[in-house]
Amino acid sequence: MGRKYPGNIAVKRLEQKVAEDGNVFLSSGHLLAEWALDSFVEYVMLQDLIKVISTHPDFVHLTSRVYEADVVRGPLYRYPDEDYDFSLDYPDIDFDDDSSEDSYDRDSPWYTKETQFQIMNWKPALWWIPDEDDLDAVTKFLTMEPSDPTYDDTGREVRPKYYFSAAAAAIQWLERLTSENRMHLRKLIIQEDYTSINLPQTHARGLVLLCVENPQLQVERRVDIWKTEFIPASEHFNRDVRSIVQGVGHWICETKFLRALGMPPASFSLVLHGPTKEASQQLCDAMIKAAIWQEGVEELARRDGKEFRPWWDAIAEDFVDLTKAMIRGDIPARFEADMGEVWDIEEVLRNWSDRERNIFALKNFEEPDGGWEAARAGYFEQVEWVERMDGWDLLVAENQLEENAS
Fold first, then answer.
1. Which residues pair with 220 in a beta bridge?
2. What is the mean pLDDT of the chain?
3. Counting CB atoms within 10 angstroms of each CB, which of 54, 62, 297, 383 has the fewest?
4. Would you place residue 51 in the very low, low, confident or very high pLDDT band (cuts 50, 70, 90)?
5. How far apart are CA 192 and CA 173, in angstroms?
6. In 3D, which of 332, 338, 335, 292 has the Cα closest to residue 315?
7. Burial of residue 76 (number of CB atoms within 10 Å: 0-12, 13-18, 19+)
8. Who wins on pLDDT, 100 or 83?
9. Where are the domains of the chain?
10. Does residue 211 have a pLDDT over 80?
11. How do residues 119-178 score in pLDDT, each as one tens digit?
């Protein structure tokens, strides 16, 4: 995997962990947690791992335990706590009695013998926009997990508004053009101003082949960080600062992989901005100060002979290097603001203040029109009660038939 993901910290650590401990950690079905922005591609890495694991001669037998109750765990699925008796922690629950109201809640299997390989071979692009026929085909082998309802202050049920990314829409439009017509394009500006589904940060990958086809095409992908990151997270912004900074960092980090995937150097650029020029500068300054603070903490720990803990003392292990690469112009990403020059950490430490860690606070960013709460409300829609009545349309139709017959 290291050859496919050159320089990826998460992949490098995963390979090291497997070399040292075997597949013990992977037996839980999860990747090794890494405090690195480039671990964001774990979805793709999981697909690659499944492809490798599926070559094991006992793969079908070992994975059939999901739908065959009498299949025991095999050597691929051993982990230190597999023999732990959970009834010791939950003495009031009868794990073996399915009729008991307190019995352990067993989920229905995610796949069956018939659908297992359909699911494995189904690998749609993350920027894929399905139509109704596509969805009908997929629901034949994919199970859907119902989500818990969310309610607003009035008690009305609400649900988030979901959108496809602007990049996904642009890719679909480009692919519908003939190759001859695409060759006439010279400039394409993609504006991301909604939260969107399926890891939108990665969707520029779908532009690589189109830009290779037409090297004269220049794509500028613009991302309004207020609308895609800040407003949706504004309710608990100050509590979730690390994940919010990481969210912005993921947009930047993704651009460094595009060249490895074949994107022509001058074909793509990412521009992160706010609702105004001043807001864009606030974003730029805050991200750079967060990186400066992290490098300062790391350097002070080194000088004091202490362990630097990225999971506790940092935004992400690769955050500082990524920010410096952006300022130097080494990756096709920038803020729509004056980014200045790369800082001198020695000069920073001479005037060190730990208060810099508080720079990423909601109060330091320009409020949207109407305030944060009003803007956040726009990301939800109320669910009408008739939408919750299964078969409502069918019931009405049947009633009309009965009235006509009488």
1. 189, 269
2. 82
3. 54
4. confident
5. 16
6. 292
7. middle
8. 83
9. 9-123, 157-379
10. yes
11. 888 889 999 999 999 989 988 888 776 677 788 777 788 888 989 999 999 999 999 999
Taking the C-alpha atoms of residue 213 and residue 235, their distance in angstroms, rounded to an integer, is 44
Q: What is the mean pLDDT of residues 209-220?
A: 97
- H or E element at residue 160: strand 157-160
Q: How confident is the model at residue 24 (pLDDT cuts 50, 70, 90)?
A: low
User: How is residue 254 written in tokens?
Assistant: 């993704």
CB-based contacts of 221, cutoff 8 Å, min separation 6:
167, 190, 192, 204, 268, 269, 270, 271
Long-range contacts: 319-328, Cβ < 8 Å, 24+? 319/37, 319/245, 319/246, 319/249, 319/290, 319/291, 319/294, 320/291, 320/294, 320/295, 322/37, 322/249, 322/252, 322/253, 322/256, 323/252, 323/287, 323/288, 323/291, 324/291, 325/256, 326/252, 327/288
Cα–Cα distance measured from residue 282 to residue 273, given in angstroms and rounded to the nearest whole number: 10
First to last CA, the chain: 70
Token couple for 143: 């199970």
- Please report, for residues 208, 253, 340, the alpha-carbon distance to residue 3 in angstroms, rounded to integers and kept in the order given: 19, 18, 34
pLDDT tens per residue across span 322-341:
999 999 999 999 999 999 99
Degrees to nearest 5, angle at CA 107 with 102 and 108: 130
